[in-house]
Amino acid sequence: MEQYVIKGGNPLVGEVEIGGAKNAALAILAAAIMTDETVTIENLPNVRDINVLLNAIEGIGARVERINKHKVKINGAFINDLSVDYEFIKKIRASYYLLGALLGKYKKAEVALPGGCDIGSRPIDLHIKGFRALGAEVDIQHGLISAHADALNGTHIYLDKVSVGATINIMMAASMAEGKTIIENAAKEPHVVDVANFLNSMGANIRGAGTDVIRIVGVEKLHKTEYSIIPDQIEAGTFMFAAAATKGDVTVKNVIPKHLEATTAKLIEAGCEVEEFDDAVRVVSSKPLRHTQVTTLAYPGFPTDMQPQMAVVLGIAQGTSTVTESIFENRFKYVDELTRMGADIKVESNIAIINGVKNYTGARVSAPDLRAGAALVIAGLSAEGITTVDDIYFIERGYEDFDKKLQSLGAQIEKVSSEKEIQKFKLKVS
Ligand SMILES: CC(=O)N[C@H]1[C@@H](OP(=O)(O)OP(=O)(O)OC[C@H]2O[C@@H](n3ccc(=O)[nH]c3=O)[C@H](O)[C@@H]2O)O[C@H](CO)[C@@H](O)[C@@H]1O
Ligand SMILES: C=C(OP(=O)(O)O)C(=O)O
User: What is the ipTM of this complex?
Assistant: First the structure.
């Protein structure tokens, strides 16, 4: 089993390139099978979730040609199976997008209930409500969601809760329904907009993505396109927090600064300087970090996928901070691990009360999920001594070359797979 071993204490300095957004790419890959023509997708992140989904897409008969690490061609004309197996997708959440894509195109789909990180109960009732409102019959039996319809008909759907997944899934199915669909209380995340732009480039008619009312006029057919995925705001934010925690000076390149506004605002409150350029942001952390309050919210609020990374920064800020998690009830699993590194954090219901300590001390910790794992790496980079992070396969779900990118900023981090390699690393850095 692979681990990261880290010698903390080096400020991160330099420039880092951000890849394509995992959570946009997953939906876009699923939507790509909605045409029988060839779709080319660029700026694809080379991470585990993407490769799992590409295998699932190949598994139902679509042709997938990997042009290079970040570019793929997909042709959905050869799909011969409308049932997506549990084996392919048990590890990823976004498998549910195949439901909307197949239902829209073929009016029939069967997909195993999705996996993904264990960060809360993660129901999919709103997706199902949307498909039913479009006229589909939806059943869950033996771990499979089956949906079918003679025809999908445009309708008015109000989402009781803001949901990224439900918004995108309904948008995909409605793109090939008859007539007009209106989604109210839609999610406004940048990846919702990216998926709408992608579908529109295939001939769909979607207006209003990025606001809370999305209007879709169904079309009979979608066509080929070439599309480049937006930069990953969560990967970008993770490097921004790593700069903050290590007292560094990092320019994060290939980003859309507007998508990072909530992160930027909180870093400034915590005492960092953040400079914005057209497609880059620079974070300088030269003053003592200060306490602040953070609440996770749907976009444009502070993203839940950045909550653990922010908490790690506040764990070494002066004073008492609070972090309120309002999206997923089980996203504080990193707290026990961070406590082993010297943090002083108490969780009461959905609020973490963080009393800043002077610094973390290296320890052996385990990544409980993707973002919590990245946060523990940040803690290790700022800590005194050696930290080993176990279960890094979670981190590899969503970060491409995380260790190499950090090394390029001066971090002492290595991926190892044995005790012997850990000892070798310790000798090297001592
Ligand atoms: C693959 C992907 O893109 N994952 C992201 C997506 O997850 P995901 O799409 O699963 O998250 P949602 O936006 O749907 O969830 C938001 C909230 O709505 C609730 N809910 C959701 C659907 C539903 O049918 N019923 C319901 O009650 C959820 O439990 C949660 O409390 O958005 C989350 C919120 O930004 C991110 O943390 C995840 O990284
Ligand atoms: C929680 C995440 O992913 P998923 O929804 O796929 O579990 C994430 O990207 O932070």
Answer: 0.98
